[in-house]
Amino acid sequence: MRIASLVSALAMAASLAACSHKSSSTKLDADEARDLLIDRNWLDRMPETDRDHLFVYRFVPTMGGGVFQDRTLYKGTFELFTFKTDADNIHFNLPETKTEVTSAYTIEKVDGPKPFDLKLTIADDPRGPHVYYGWSSETDVDGHVLEQRLHDVH
Question: N or C: lower Cβ tally within 10 Å for the chain?
């Protein structure tokens, strides 16, 4: 009887611990989020093979806007867009479809999924899955760092 009670108590303690565990993340203020949004690759996932599908955003105002990529390591499509940010919103202008979308966004410091330490959430994303990840150490002005990281995976 004691063993059954002990097992039950341990199971309950483990269950409570699992429920109370929260992933480590810190939402950044609007100014820091705006700074981190720019000139960074935002991926929905890190591919594990050269055929894994992924979505990538880059916001590059020095080049007049941004690009959204729907791709694998070697093949994909892209869409150029212009954008503006204010406080907590991104204003997308998609010339190909003549669509304008305003969406709230947040950037958080996170512990993964590995190898990422930043998380971008675009509430009303006009193109992809709403959640993307990046690296705080990245300053990839022309996109070559992403290509190298993707090739290094394989």
Answer: N
